[in-house]
Amino acid sequence: MKLVNVTELRTRAAEILQFATKEDVIITYHGEPKAILKSFTEDDWEDYALVHHPDFISQREAARADDAKGKVIDIDTMIKEIEDAEI
Q1: Which residue, of 19, 20, 28, 44, has the fewest CB within 10 Å?
Q2: Nearest Cα to 61, choosing from 45, 53, 43, 76?
Q3: Strands 32-37 and 2-5
Q4: Quick one: 75 exposed, middle or buried, by C-beta within 10 A (0-12, 13-18, 19+)?
Q5: What's the pLDDT band for 86 if we cut at 50, 70, 90?
Q6: How many domains does the chain divide into?
Q7: Residue 29 belongs to a domain with what CATH number?
Q8: Distance CA 7, CA 28 (A)
Q9: What global pTM score does this model have?
Q10: Burial code of 8-41, b = ≥16 C-beta within 10 A, e = fewer?
Q11: CA end-to-end span of the chain, whole Å?
């Protein structure tokens, strides 16, 4: 892990971004940590986009609400219902 202040980030952005592919970089402002640079792959981008998509968030919240109300079925029951519907 490396600490970098905002001024250094401005002047050495490309070099610091390259370093962040190997190790986390903490960005400080007036000596206090404010952000972190982490390596980010194509797979990470896909996961991030999905998890933060409004439709996914609303579906996840609805599923959690159903679970809290006991409106869930186990996987075996669900598979059986799907198989029966296909007949």
Answers
A1: 44
A2: 53
A3: unpaired
A4: exposed
A5: confident
A6: 2
A7: 3.40.1620.10
A8: 9
A9: 0.60
A10: ebeeeeeebeeebeeeebebbeeeeeeeebeeee
A11: 58
